[in-house]
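Hey team,

Filing this mostly as a record. A colleague (T.K.) asked me to run one chain through the structure pipeline before their review meeting, and I want the input and output archived in the tracker in case anyone asks later how it was produced. No errors, nothing strange. Just documentation.

Input sequence:
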Amino acid sequence: MLKSISITALAGILGASLTLADQTSRIVIPASRTAANNGRQMYTSYCAPCHGADGRGSGPAASAMRPQPTDLTLLMRKNHGKYPDTHVVSILQFGTEVSSHGSATMPVWGPILGNMNRSNLQDKQLRISNLARYLETIQER
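Output structure:
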C-alpha cells in the first residue's frame, strides 16, 4: 500500500515538474540590429514573433506562451478610444511583470536592446518613441 502511494506521489511530482518546465522553456528567435528611426522594422524584428505581424497576439511563438501575448491592436479601444502613449512608452522602457516576457525587461529582448543602446541614451529614447508611434498606427478603430 505504501509503495503504491509513493509511486502515485512520485508520478504527480514528475507531472507537475514537466508542466512547470514546459512553461519556463525559452524559444530562441534570431534578431538583428534595426534602425532606430524605423518603428515598423523594430516591431517586425522584436515584437512580431510573439504578438504577430498584424499585432493581434498570434505570432509563431505565441502558442508556447502563458499568458498569451496581448492583442496590441486593441490598446486604444481598451483605453476608451485614446491611444495610451505614456503607458506604451513605460512598458517599452521599463518592461512589465508578464511572466512570458521572461523578466521585467521588455521582454526577452531587453539585453539585446540594452546592449545596442548602452552608451547612447538618445538612441534608446528614439527607438522607444518610434516603436510606440508605430504601435499607434496599428490600432483598431
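Quick notes for T.K.: DSSP finds five helices and no strands in the chain. The chain has one domain: 32-137.
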